[in-house]
């Protein structure tokens, strides 16, 4: 049985683990390492310190499916819908641009991270948090993988699903496998940056706006605001509401290295200008997204790039496709297809 490590417990990583389990049940033992302290990646859901039922999506807000992807990835949408993880978006949204006829939008009643957690449960993988991979190097017939402040472990195959700039920072044998034109391709990948601010309220608090989500044009700070429980159609008198504000890309770039406390003050000030009657929150969380959405993907990668065949080392994720649910599905499918032929 081959021991496979998936680095990153975001959407692509969890899908890879789940699909590996389903396609190669008796052939692989799956481990997932995540540097953060919870699953989700850019589909993370945060919880109020005072109310476990008050949550906010600080990353992806909803899932958008084109008619093409509803057809080609229909089994994924059907599975999540059958488990109550996806539900059609019915709440009012202001300023949303419809780019194509027949597009369908979905929300996650239990938060965006519930998608990732579902796939991790289905994978049966051994999942460890707080494990930041620093080195991947050859040892015997496989790979020795080192984490910051921890012991190294050996694996027969490694799948890297972290953002491309973090792949380029890995040490060990990885730099020698990424040379010449391949390095140029990976270094050409770029991401937008932004901040998200989550405001958590006590039960009974009213947020008096006529919409669930709204996009703002021309604001130098805020691009999007969501009243999260209203967005998900899960409002309840027993738990407090939450509100999420996402900044525009320009603000994120210009303030990327600023202390998060200072950024929180700036965003709160702008938010109060937009919504002057906004109640005082019980708590506030700010999240910096250095790698928010892919602007330029790896040219010609088709969802993955294999760095080494034997032992197997492959890169996947939205940097090799596109920053949405279907892009991550496509990458995971390509990674698992290559793995099946190699293990």
Description:
- The chain has 343 residues and is of the alpha/beta class.
- It folds into 2 domains: 2-190 and 300-342, 3-Layer(bba) Sandwich (FAD/NAD(P)-binding domain); 192-295, Polyamine Oxidase, Chain A, domain 2 (Alpha-Beta Complex), CATH 3.90.660.
- The chain has 11 helices and 21 strands.
- It has helices at 11-23, 67-72, 74-82, 113-123, 164-168, 174-177, 180-187, 228-231, 249-254, 260-274, 325-342, and strands at residues 2-7, 28-34, 45-47, 55-57, 63-65, 87-88, 93-94, 104-107, 126-129, 133-139, 142-147, 153-155, 157-160, 171-172, 190-200, 213-215, 222-227, 242-247, 283-296, 304-308, 312-316.
- A 6-stranded mixed sheet has the order 9-2-1-13-21-20, covered by helices on one side. A 6-stranded mixed sheet has the order 7-16-17-18-15-19.
- A hairpin with a 6-residue loop joins strand 16 and strand 17 (222-227).
- Helix 1 (11-23) packs parallel to helix 4 and helix 1 packs across helix 11.
- The longest helix is centred in the last third of the chain and has 18 residues, at 325-342.
- 46% of the residues are buried.
- The mean pLDDT is 96.
Descriptors:
signal, alpha/beta, Polyamine Oxidase, Chain A, domain 2, 2 domains, Amino_oxidase, FAD/NAD(P)-binding domain, 6-stranded mixed beta sheet, oxidoreductase activity, acting on NAD(P)H, 343 residues
